[in-house]
Amino acid sequence: MAINATDFTIDASGNIRQATAFVPGTHSRYSTLELHAWLQDLADNSAPAGDDLVSILGNNPSELAGKRNASRPMALTLLPNFNINDATAQWFKFGSIEQNSGNDLYTGLKVLGSLVASSPIYIIQNAAKITKYWQDADAANFQILVKAKSGGALIDSGNITVFSRKYGQTYSHFDVNLAAGGEQAAALSTSIDGNVDTGTMTPAVCASYFATAIGGTGGGTPKITLAYGDTTQDLGGGQGALLHKGTITLDGSITLAQAYQALMWACSESSTINFNAIPGWRYRVLPGQAYAENIAAPFGTFAGGKWFVAQGWWLTGVQAADSKNYQLVSHTGVTETPPTSIAVQIGGVVAGDYVLVGRDNGSGGILDTEYTVSGSSGATSITVTGLKADTPASGVIRIDGDRYIYTGWSGTTVSGLAPALSKTYTNRPAFIPLIDAVASGPTINSAQMQFGSNFTCRYRVRNGGGSPIVPFESTLAVTSNGGSGTAVRNADQ
């Protein structure tokens, strides 16, 4: 496409300037080869004419690094004193333009790969977004010039990163160095993310999951909190205690799928979230680390209902229903899987037998002083500091001997108490039995719980009513296979 001379002017000082601002979608970009051809066509004129003051009477305006070749990106040099400015550079593509004796350089950038049609593209240079002078719709045929050198110095050593991060799609980015000029390529690949429901987990909903101080809109207690720093933790799946460099804390009210979606939005182009002073739109790995990147999903991919969390992060506050639906990778690269879900079973019982199973206190009794708790009368949840990871997902909590059913727990909170606390407790002993109920058949099971480490339980079986027995008590071992015991029912005559 030959250059339309009305798009540019060239004054007597060699300043090549746009006659009108480039408008993406309205104007088409010219190649650097077409700029050279136009300048050389002017340079053989007998005298300057109009607003393009170039002719055979003046200096040669340009030269190519090699022969003209319409299929090969061209490295064009504007000879002193010919030059363009940043605004005029927006009109060109397909090669590079060097000027001012090599002190200024605009390098061509081309995007290759498989992209969803609506994938936007943005460019980071010197840790900031370049103001767009292209359309997001250009993704399928993206070619522009990017300024790589100014005043004799490369801008950020010539480095840029090309991103495509639209919430609802998988993400992509590619590092490019522009120092060599010519045309450099960025390979990107995006697809629709089937694990993101943009209709339910809207950007506004996602933003509300984070503290207002870091860009959220909820204004209350955040549902997702991130902390940075060493933490050595044992997930309980047999890998042992391992070092992590950051912690993702969920408040227990959201699923892993919701957390994944919120963090994906937080890393999108439109995000307002910062991660340890790094804007989410350029977040790549846990700050300060050199881990292998999860390019498609910076906090880890989600597949088959399971979140494969990015390296270095420790995850806490997971709902019981999601207890096996994630995988971690420690700072040293060890894959960590959640512990096995287990249960405790007592057999040899009949309907009507009361069964109590709790941790053995080592002195011939049940450990009924496992925790110390406080709570106000009427409350339906209570904080239990030091709550064990292998606590049943639901069951009974005994406070000062008083029995309350609970429906779930997360972190240090036991919730869904029924009845509500009948009185106010202040620093009272409490424990959580594995089983605390009347059998309805020949066996009785605890709720599912995570296996953390081996421990010993003590169980009691009593019936003084329609089928009276001599009270029975024994112990059982709980391992990664769970635990089981059998009652001996001797009639109480």
SS elements, strand count: 40
Percent helix: under 10%
The coarse silhouette is rod-shaped
Strand content: 35-45%
Number of domains: 3
* Structure class: mainly beta
Distance between the termini: 107 Å
What's the total helix number? Answer: 4
The pLDDT mean sits at 93
Low-confidence stretches: none
For the sheet with most strands, the description reads: 7 strands, mixed
Radius of gyration: 34 Å
Summary?
The chain has 4 helices and 40 strands. It is mostly beta strands.
Please describe the structure with a list of short key phrases separated by commas or semicolons:
40 strands, mainly beta, 3 domains, four-stranded antiparallel beta sheet, 493 residues
Write the layout of secondary structure elements.
Blueprint: E1 8-10, E2 16-18, E3 30-31, H1 32-43, E4 62-64, E5 74-78, H2 86-89, E6 92-93, E7 95-99, E8 104-114, E9 122-125, E10 128-129, E11 143-150, E12 153-154, E13 159-164, E14 172-177, E15 183-189, H3 203-208, E16 224-234, E17 241-250, H4 256-266, E18 274-275, E19 278-279, E20 300-303, E21 306-309, E22 313-316, E23 326-329, E24 335-336, E25 341-342, E26 344-347, E27 354-359, E28 371-375, E29 381-383, E30 395-399, E31 402-406, E32 408-410, E33 413-415, E34 425-431, E35 435-438, E36 443-445, E37 449-450, E38 455-462, E39 472-478, E40 483-486
